[in-house]
């Protein structure tokens, strides 16, 4: 029987304090709103807002009735009758300036209420953020390199098109694509996060195509604060412990200020349940969902090509082995290698040709599912983050300071991408194999066969593949900021130099070498009757026979041979150096306000080196790992690629950037009748050492109309994304392949390399919005609606070898220059990235907030209602590949961009003499489809085509998740809280794939289930 909720929460709070030993949590960050003297904000659950948060004492002085809502723009600071707005969507900071680019802000109070171990998870729930990566994504991948990477994506355009900053500064990438890892940020000191949902390249440079996410820290934090939190799921797994602490103090008359913070969090993850259709931790929703696909030729019967089926059985292998062709097809092997008749689903009967009646290749429905591997993927990685941060500043005078910051962060994760190492009817077993039962050897003889095809899940392996990425960041910044007088005006400046390094080490354990595995399973008896490897060269090199015929204990010596302890290794080192200077001020006083200017220049260098092990990358004189891998004549030591997965290769590259920008704000109108209007312009000129020169610009305007509370805003911009290190300098890989060209099959050498001739991607961003901010007829209410349209051309994408050949044949000379096809024996095709594809994203963002005092209803406290929603109208991808058409991704729930995504919160705070707050949140996205290119039909279907396949049912449900939490101020210095995410334990929808692997979509759906967290915060 499960622990009652009350007891569970007590247990979690205690567990958090004990298991963390440094476990990190969302400690109370200093709020930008009003707080009680010496006190903490009332904790609770997620509440998203765009401005300052009111503190717990607000109700005591608030008038009866509505109180001002959180503004739908970033917070402003007011001094007398001047208001200086500092928002991440613009470099301008001037009196009366209202930027045209939509920006949503989350304050420290909002982040605390989410009560999550990682700020990344809170941000990823925002509707505009779609396609972010975290510890529940890529858990089925061995070689992607992004496992355990917490990186943000706006508009579904990918993490590489979202610029993530820390205090307006770039951060060294945690992956060769250049994307940052939010888990490496000093999250405890974050007092606000600005999410700029529009192009910002003119202000911030490359990568800001989808927008900018800027983490803003409390640079002058004073005092001490800490947070302890513990959590676990309803299924008693993914247990977590977190601890954060920060201290800040001024010395020498407060001219020297020191801030130090440390964070540790540990989330244990959700382990693989192993083989079979069994969900992890007792979860019952997994059901081997796949696309069952007929051939195009079969669709002339009026029935659809695709059906979505549950309980799919891949009949090309069984848990401990299955003969998949010939007269013995359907013979499986169990304990001790004893043969038995395999139970096919769908009442299937083997045909001896490899097919099975009543089944559609390669799936039956039902039957023996014990060898299924899909449920064996970890739902969430075991994840640990450690961050140490310090900032020292020295005030030269009242207006100027020098500072230095240092950050050390290490993020470790580990997970199992799949159990065993499935071989899908691609093994050949000789009938004289020494491990075959006598009855099978006799059957071979009676049927006059010398061998048969064989498939197995390799469930007898003593361990599953496990991947261990470790990312370590060291970042140092030396800077200065302050104010100075010029032309009778006060100007501000900031300048900094940064050096950052990120080392990523990926180790893969318990994974096999393909050639050694094949040699080890091909076992015979020698003249003395001893079982040995058939291949004499392999035997002389240490080959130990491996028995995969049935469930037999694996010989440790055989396992050590096929899966050596020094498995695949990738070591990547990235460096970033930046020097930047910016000035900001008012040039002169115009007829409608000050003409303001921001200008700056930046130099940046990015470089990386990656080294793989000798078995994966091939023997390389500059690889530090060669000595760990003894020579083996059976392996390919020239090109590598010997592992079952995780074949990492060597590469390196660097580029530098020089750029300068200018931004102006020109007030156009200031009238009691017509309101106020301003024009915002920016231009940036950039030169890349690899991609050449490119410009970006922005033209925007805002109009605070004469209508009470109504403001209009619009902006158009040209934004860019330069090719990253991976695209320019991808590690080279060479293999032999075959292509079709001019009606003939041609053998070619496939050379996969980077492309240093890539051009920057160019985007055109357009948005128009209407803002209603606290009109007199609706006090306490604010709302905004913004339409956005983003077009990206010259999108960098990778093509298959055959696609490149087809494009060359169609006349693309750039592609033709990457191959030779008319020189037998010397033919090659260079597979690399090209500027061929395009993207277009259109949609609407909606925000609303209402805050009211409940005294008129004779109720205590205050009620705050907030909602954010994004409606994706179009997400069109054009690959540029011959024979394809643009695809529509809006509403495809197998992807990242549902038609609707919403986050709403209702907070009731100020209860029990301003000590208690309650928050309910709803996360929702709409029903969708598997693909907008499918034609749904049940009978009378048209003949299916590659461009428009037919499918029986093209509907994929959305989901609604409810979160609830509460916080209680025990004293002014101590508060306690609890949070329940996914209160109803809503299961994820099946996400069918072409094979029964990881058939869920963690990019949209909650795959963890109901989660409890509880903790306490200290603030002195």
Automatic annotation (TrEMBL):
It is a multi-pass membrane protein. It comes from the Bacteria. Residues 32-64 have a biased composition (Low complexity). Residues 1-29 form the signal peptide. It is found in: Cell outer membrane. PROSITE patterns: TONB_DEPENDENT_REC_3. The keyword Signal applies. Its main location: membrane. Residues 32-76 are annotated as: Disordered. Gene3D superfamilies: TonB-dependent receptor, beta-barrel domain (2.40.170.20), TonB-dependent receptor, plug domain (2.170.130.10). Residues 454-983 form the TonB-dependent receptor-like beta-barrel domain. One of its GO terms (cellular component) is cell outer membrane. Keywords: Cell outer membrane, Membrane, Receptor, Signal, TonB box, Transmembrane, Transmembrane beta strand, Transport. InterPro entries: Beta-barrel_TonB, Beta-barrel_TonB_sf, Plug_dom, Plug_dom_sf, TonB-dep_rcpt-like. Residues 99-212 form the TonB-dependent receptor plug domain. It holds the Pfam family Plug. PANTHER family: PTHR47234, SECRETIN_TONB SHORT N-TERMINAL DOMAIN-CONTAINING PROTEIN (PTHR47234:SF3). Belongs to the TonB-dependent receptor family. This is TonB-dependent receptor. It comes from Massilia forsythiae.
